[in-house]
Amino acid sequence: MSDQEQLADIPLSTVDSPSVVLELIHQLKIKDVMSTTILTGTKNHTMRHIQALMRENRVKGIPILEDEKLVGLISIEDIIVAHDKGYIDSPIEERMTKNIISLQDDMPVSMAISSLNKYRFGRFPVLDKDHKLVGIITATDVIRALLVEMNREVLRLEKIHKNTNTNDTSVYSEMEYTTAHYNFELAGRASTEIKKALKQRNYDPKLIRRVAIACYELEINQVVHSDGGTMHCSIMPDKVIITAADTGPGIADVNQALKEGYSTANEYVRSLGFGAGMGLANTKRVSDEFTIQSTVGKGTTVRSVVFTDSVKDEK
Hints:
By secondary structure, this protein is an alpha+beta fold. Helix 2 (about 15-25) packs across helix 8 (about 140-160), helix 9 runs antiparallel to helix 10 (about 205-225) and helix 10 runs antiparallel to helix 13 (about 280-285). It has 13 helices and eleven strands. A hairpin with a 3-residue loop joins strand 10 and strand 11.
């Protein structure tokens, strides 16, 4: 089955597919997508020898190593030119591309997509933090990985949302979304979807607004201050629980962080209109129950509860 046929089989009506793709390309790392079976050559090989390797293994590019260090790259285009100009039996060292653009394995897939579009190369060598060649990434690798992850995400969201299309407030359901550091394109997605689910159940507009405020503030906090995390919502007949759990620096002084106007956001975040220091304070204000647990160097978990029969109003 082709990539296009696989994509056609995904029930995209169940999910906001552009948002899902954006989320995946920021969350997936190149090491999650790249091919780790690497065919390599050496500087002493001839162009003809590399051509034979390409033909036998059906690849269109081979990295060249010296003492396990990446020193060059030969593509199928190089082989074609070598035939045309009559130097197919020349040593690789004389003809290989030496100015190599490589990617790092811990970069997000978005960086690979940007590089593929910008340079129009068919493949990029991937190095680890020690500059050792650990993989090769192509557009096909990216598409295949996104198809697999989109299928998984659709199945997960179908399970989460199976009970959300009802106006029966007695139905229990759960929803969960992920966030990523500085991914402002998706910031607010969780609060929007949770708000929709509550409206479908005909909850009181004031309650919906309080839940939406708590969810949005916690979601933005994760995007700005953490390495990313999850936004989990439990919708029950008597209450709505928002649990925001992230990984990252944690909070050294929780009491200080709860003060209105206190913020550790940098100038970049402030220039985008975030980081006013009201996130946790606002969340606590609209919650009937509010707890926060944080460990420096590990992360933070915030739990906000709004009771469905509460008359408390946000101001």
